[in-house]
Amino acid sequence: MNNLYLIMAAAGAVTAGWGLRAAHTFKSPWDSAAALSAVAGLVAFIIGILLSVLPDFFIT
User: Fold this and answer.
1) d(CA 44, CA 52)
2) Is the Cβ–Cβ distance between 55 and 2 less than 8 Å?
3) Over the range 26-60, which residues count as b (16 or more CB within 10 Å of their CB) and which as e?
4) For residues 8 and 6, what is the distance between their CA atoms, to the nearest angstrom?
5) pLDDT level of residue 35 (50, 70, 90 thresholds)
6) Residue range 44-50: mean pLDDT, rounded
7) What is the DSSP letter of 57?
8) Is the peptide bond prior to 29 cis by the omega test (within 30 degrees of 0)?
9) Is the dihedral of CA 51, 53, 58, 59 positive or negative?
10) Which DSSP string do the residues of 24-56 spell out, in sequence order?
11) Is 18 exposed, middle or buried (0-12, 13-18, 19+ CB in 10 A)?
């Protein structure tokens, strides 16, 4: 299961990097969609790293 979290973190990092670059090069309204994907990628990256370090973080 830990490998899936690392894959999630890697995909989030790639998505955040692509979104940051695309947000500055695309024309409106596509730049807003790219900026949202950058934020979503950053969230996926943070959650993936968190769950790979602490797998039971969200279990009560």
Assistant:
1) 12
2) yes
3) eeeeeeeebbebbeebbebbebbbebbeeeeeeee
4) 5
5) very high
6) 96
7) T
8) yes
9) positive
10) HHSPTTHHHHHHHHHHHHHHHHHHHHHHHH-TT
11) middle
